[in-house]
Each structure stands twice: as C-alpha cells, then as structure tokens.
Specification:
Low-confidence stretches: none
Number of strands: 7
Number of helices: 7
CATH class: Alpha Beta
Shape: globular
Distance between the termini: 15 Å
Structural class: alpha/beta
Order of helices and strands: HEHEHHEHEEEHEH
Amino acid sequence: MDRLSTDGYKKVDKLPLVVVLDNIRSLHNIGSIFRTCDAFRIENIHLCGITATPPLAEIHKTALGAENSVDWTYHASAKECITMLISSGYVVIAVEQAVDSVMLDKLELDVNKKYAIIMGNEVKGVQQELVDAADFCVEIPQFGTKHSLNVSVSAGMVIWQCFTLLDFKK
C-alpha cells in the first residue's frame, strides 16, 4: 500500500494545521484524533489541560501507533497554548456552535496561512476564553434531533475540510 514508516512520516511535509485538544476526557477520543491527524499529516497535536498524553494503552488502542508518528506537545493551560500559536502566526479556529460561527461547508482558508483548530471537551465544548481568543468559530451543520457530534468525529470532519481547502499535495 506504499505507506510511510514512522521515520518517513517525520521527514515529509505536513499540512499547515495543528490541532488543539482542550480538556478531552476520553482516551479513545484522543487516540482516534491522533490516528486522523496521522492520516492527513497534521503538524502537531497540542494536548491541553486534563487531556491525557501518550504512552497509554487506552490511547494506543485507537491511535494504533499514530501517537508515535504525529508530533505532540502538552500544555497545562490551553489559553497559554493558544496565545503561543497566535504569536507564532497561526489563524486560530474554535470548533464550536456560537453566534456568527462559519458553517463548515462555507469555510474558506488561505493556502498561504497556517491554522490551528481547537476541539473542546466532550460535554462542555471549547472554553469560552478560547472561543474569545480565536479568530473565528466553525460549526458543523446538523439536521437531526441531536445538537452535537462526538469530538473525534467532529475533528475528522474539520481536518478533512481543511485538508481539501488547503490543497495539500502529498
């Protein structure tokens, strides 16, 4: 299938996108997001607050080794992480239902910029102070009786949309 090795993955170009996990409780969600980030060659995952860090068997169960290929950094404070990303030139996008949020299917990205998406806690979502610090919010349109999706599912949808909009060439 012509897949990269972990060493090969470390050497190839990455999508100009980082993922910030804000207080994610489920180790399986964390692992799943690692695996999605590996699939689309994300630059880095920033694990913040109570979000657990590898190596843990429960993360590995869904990451299937992606926790070894995708670079990650731990931050006690998501706010400090976001402040650092902004000062490093990232456009910060909170994935959250909010007033004036951009629907995912209407999202527009500039291929000359780098982006950070914030994924929030499974129950409480993205912290308000992070929503306030973000450049804007993006929301996934939903048409059923539920008003939220699993965080790892949401991350996959948003990462895929960013991948296609940034016209990433593998």
